[in-house]
């Protein structure tokens, strides 16, 4: 007489499955993808708001999937250029229009899960790229802000967001430009876009820009450093360099008041621009990192 069939295996409760899924490594996102397509029940657990909120808290700081960099225009490699996105694990994405060594869109900023790309030289539009999904959105540059010397930055536009998974939500872009007046004075202007929704199907012409803020007069030799800006206390901070003495200053754009202001760098006259990086500190302030040999 054959032995009786084994009793059916009882499925694990959702609470235990969550504890198992919590231990899937965040530096291997394919594990979560494979688990989510196993069945509808697992997909429901992995996609629910509670799990998505607890998973990053369980693992702490998110892993670095890779890093982005841009070559200065005058130093573009002629042969075998490296990709603009360097992956540090089994995750890879191609920056839009950069396949085959096409450097039409260098990286200008990266914040809150999005990357801001801008055309070289006289830009006519910007590209906001989501590296997690590969989606992109083109934004027209304001007609009065077509400066060759300028900077752009982007940030999450969702109020009260913890920025753990907001790459598909609304965002805003700031365009900062320097202009020379007829009497050889340098002035800075800034404009910010209206909140851009996560509807990636809309065209770039749907974005509206604020009125230009009051101009701020700068030294004639002022230039905006190519380093990305930092966001501290609802204000973007850009580093300015000076050709004459290689010193630096901080150009602050307050998002609440739509105003520009200038901040003297510590140790004015000693800070050297080529060895200085503007950084956001853990206590919510900003600082300068200086490299010496």
Describe how the helices and strands are arranged.
Layout: H1 14-22, H2 29-36, H3 40-47, H4 49-59, E1 66-68, E2 85-87, E3 107-111, E4 114-118, E5 125-129, E6 136-140, E7 150-156, E8 171-180, E9 186-192, E10 216-218, E11 222-224, E12 230-232, E13 235-242, E14 248-254, E15 259-264, E16 276-280, E17 286-290
Antiparallel strand pairs: 1-2, 3-4, 4-5, 5-6, 7-8, 8-9, 9-10, 11-13, 12-13, 13-14, 14-15, 16-17
Largest sheet: 5 strands, antiparallel
Euclidean distance between termini CA atoms: 84 Å
| Overall pLDDT level | 78
Radius of gyration: 23 Å
Overview of this protein structure:
12% of the residues lie in helices and 31% in strands. It contains 4 helices and 17 strands. The chain starts with 13 loop residues before the first helix and ends with a strand. The chain has 293 residues and is an alpha+beta fold. The chain folds into 2 domains: 14-59; 104-290.
